[in-house]
Amino acid sequence: MDIEITSPINITLDVIELDEHIPSLKFCLAIQVDKFSYSLSVSSQVWLECQCFDEFIDNIRNDDIAHLKDMNGCFELIVNPVLGWLEWSCAKEDLHGYTTVSKGREKLTDDAKSAIYAAFNDYPKWW
Predict the structure, then answer these.
(1) What domain of life (predicted)?
(2) Amino acid 1: pLDDT
């Protein structure tokens, strides 16, 4: 795993492609939510701009609201230390224009916030 979050939910991001023209990374995204009598699994591919990636890390470090959004607006990850939650959403449109959306909000502890920061900050940057 290139980036792995295990709390409060499981999110993995594995790099599958790089673009130096518009500094960005294509990730294979996997989200797994397991709760009492409920399970959700999301798998998709998303392009993230390196600048957005860096801003996300900086905002977590500064204890601000951190927002990571893919280039198509189909995936969002929000770390909100003010309200104490982690929000995420993932949408996919099929060839006929029909859309499936998954999203959630989880309690964000200080330990989880630190682990999320470390997971992204420790990713080896080429830009």
Answers:
(1) Bacteria
(2) 72
Q: 70-97 pLDDT, tens per residue?
A: 999 999 999 999 999 999 999 999 999 9
CA dist 38 and 54 (Å) reads 34
Lowest-pLDDT range of 35-39, 45-49, 53-57: 35-39
Report the distance separating Cα 48 and Cα 76, nearest Å. Answer: 10
Tokens 């959630």, located at residue: 104
Per DSSP, the residues of 66-99 read EEEE-TTSSEEEEEETTTTEEEEEEEEE-TTS-E
Give the pTM.
0.93
- Kindly indicate whether the domain formed by 3-122 is annotated with CATH number 2.30.31: yes
Nearest to 127 by CA among 52, 32, 36, 31: 52
Q: Per the structure block, which two tokens stand in for 2?
A: 């290139």
